[in-house]
Amino acid sequence: MTPADRAGRVDDARLVDAARRGDRNALEQLLQLHFDRVRALCRRVMANEADTDDATQEALLAICRGITRFDGRSSFSTWIYRVTTNACLDELRRKGRRPIAMADDAMPATTVPDRFADDIADRLEIDGALAQLSPDFRAAVVLRDLCQLDYDEIADVLGIPPGTVRSRIARGRAHLARFVDDASIGNQVTTHDRPKQSE
Amino acid sequence: MNDFDPSLDEIVSAYVDGVATPDERARVEADPALVERAATFRRVHDALATPPQPVDSDVRRTLIARALAEGAAPSATVHPLRSRRSATLGPIVAAAAVIAMFFGVGTWLVASQDNSDSGEASSTAAPSVAEDLFDAKGQLHSAATTARASGASDSGAPAGVTAESAKTTPVYLGAFADSPSLRQAVDSARDLSGSSTATTSPTRAATASAPASCGRTDPVDAKIYTAELRGRPVTIIVTSTRVDMYDDATCVGPTNLLLVQPPLTFGDPRPTSTTR
Fold first, then answer.
1. Which of A93, A110, A82 is nearest to A171 (CA)?
2. Taking the model in full, what pTM does it have?
3. Which domains does chain A have, with CATH numbers?
4. A82 at B interface, C-beta within 8 A
């Protein structure tokens, strides 16, 4: 833990304590401090700009309402990630965009929209690639790669065993790797050329 | 480089994250294909680790302010995120409660009638009691009045049904050329809704059909408005935390009016909006 991280946790602890006692200014400071990470997580899990603000709003609201129930067993930032992830998954569910849930031994969705074949030559469409993943897999990869949580923390956030976290991250990355691979060879790749992912 | 055994991917992924066992690490480092796969996974990691574009400061301020306003309000009606769907039972339970109340009142009235020689007195007593009940429930009052005016029975069941339908009867706000005007009208209607139904256009409200539900499950505490925006019928669902607008013709939505800075370009369906 860096000195900055340590200082941040001290700040969090002081502000959380005050916020739980009803200090509105402390709560606002917490929201300000963590806003960027909340929104970044929402942005990646929702995988589109249009729904990100709605999910962020729900997450912030859940934080305000749930702050009194934060028991300090995990770090505040981990708790924030849990609340935010749940808000995003709820929002996806509400909007009816949640793909069919996959069993952990199933492969992520592999459909590649035609538009990716056009865009991928120019840049990596990470959002588009993420959108093709089941939210459960998406959340695991994003919590690891964007939020830098370790496997145990992700297991805590998602409420799944660490072994399942490891599996979901690997399968999620394998799916995303197809887009990285395709991007690296430019526009010669078409939807039809894409190799099937082996089971 | 796309065909990989998922179990090998799991080892490579763990290797990239630094959580591989010594055996797994040795296996990856001994195999050039796995080393290359690890490099690909690192590129994925780097792409995801790049934070998204920061949000506009006005949106940031609005989101935080609304969360504080709604989240800190002890009386605000916001359904827990995980149980939002359960709110769909609310109208049913409310209707059942109203029906039960009227059956109770009806029984009481019958008993009163039996104890009195004057049937007229009882028949006039019924609306009075009904009014008292509806007075305590705000919107339900006008619904009961409407039911009586339209010849609906004063007995329990029909009035209960009427009360339920009144709760979801949309208030027509008018026709608007732009969304800021519509938003202003919604704000005015929200301000007035606690004490009056002055924003209702009687002529239109009487003929307005229920707004297209588009498969929505509207929260039990929602106020529902209809309007025309640039000639397109829209429905606005107002709850304690949101003001969502739907295009009735295409079911595009929701557009959260509270989060959209004027001018709102509604009518041009957002590419990622849900169409239901």
1. A110
2. 0.52
3. 1-98 (1.10.1740.10), 100-199 (1.10.10.10)
4. no
